[in-house]
Design brief:
The protein is of the alpha+beta class and 292 residues long. Helix content is 19%, strand content 35%. The protein has six helices and 19 strands. The protein is globular and about 60 Å long.
Length: 292
């Protein structure tokens, strides 16, 4: 079994659980690829062995890699996408961070998770993504997101105006601090904190969620991900901030952004008894009675 590992060089990843992961992979004789900066960090802090292969970009990986393990929180999981890209390598998120919607394997479940991979006791869930199709140079080659694209005001306390079009038809001019266009996966992230709805994975939707809109009757909108969304922004600072998952760019107000569904999907490993309903119950504490 060929396994790639990505993690951030930080104190969360020098623990007994990280040692457990590498010991378990060694026990099953896994062929390990590890991100170089993470490898250097772990070698200095934990003294891991030298026999692992190193990768620095998606070019160093290939479709023969069976799994990508993301060691960290949801932010680390999103960074992992920049290495997997369109290779189709399934990602398993091991949570050493906080909430963990995407990285939903708990630290104390690492041994069981690796056993499940080795014994093929898992399923693959396909997640749709969005892509910035214009301008081409915005965000470079990594012009896609699993969670969302967000438009923010910058350098001014004044709101911005985001003129929004669906397939060329005018939808609305949002007077707000910003606007979020999220996938079903991203519906549990920033969009949710701004009042957006939860959307099941596989629903083939986008959700448009305004950030602190001036008009209180403006509400999130769910639409099919077969639509093309165009955004034109007016700002007193003549620029705005655009973020694509964890990556950000300062954009001139003259630039119009076009969004559409990406032409490839992300594969996420789901272990037995893992599903969307269990995740939202556990992470959002649904049904938890604090009085007891």
């Amino acid at each position: 079994m060929k396994v790639a590992i990505y993690g951030r060089p930080n104190s969360q990843n020098i623990s007994e659980y990280t040692r457990t992961l590498f010991q378990k992979l060694d026990d099953i004789s896994a062929d390990i690829y590890i991100h170089e900066s993470f490898y250097i960090f772990l070698k200095q802090e934990m003294g891991i062995k030298d026999s692992m292969k190193i990768f620095n970009s998606h070019i160093d990986l290939n479709k023969e890699v069976d799994f990508m393990l993301s060691l960290g929180g949801d932010g680390t999981f999103l960074e992992t996408l920049t290495y997997v890209r369109n290779l189709g390598i399934p990602i398993l998120g091991i949570n050493t961070g906080r909430l963990g919607f995407l990285a939903n394997v708990a630290k104390n479940e690492i041994s069981n998770a690796i056993d499940a991979l080795a014994n093929k006791k898992y399923s693959i869930e396909q997640r749709s993504m969005l892509a910035v199709s214009f301008p081409d140079k915005l965000f470079g080659e990594v012009n896609y997101a699993l969670n969302e694209l967000t438009i923010f005001k910058r350098d001014s306390s004044s709101m911005i105006t985001i003129h929004t079009f669906i397939n060329g038809d005018f939808l609305n001019s949002y007077f707000a601090d910003g606007l979020i266009i999220a996938t079903p996966t991203g519906s549990t992230a920033y969009s949710l904190s701004c009042g957006g709805p939860l959307i099941m994975p596989g629903s083939q939707n986008f959700v448009i969620t305004p950030i602190a809109p001036h008009n209180l009757n403006v509400r999130p909108l769910v639409l099919s991900d077969s639509n093309i969304i165009n955004l034109k922004v007016e700002s007193r600072s003549n620029s705005y901030l655009a973020t694509l998952d964890s990556r950000s760019e300062i954009v001139d107000s003259s630039v119009e952004i076009t969004l559409k569904k990406a032409d490839f999907h992300l594969n996420i490993v789901k272990l037995e008894n893992q599903n969307f309903f269990n995740t939202i119950r556990n992470k959002l504490l649904w049904g938890l009675n604090k009085r007891n």
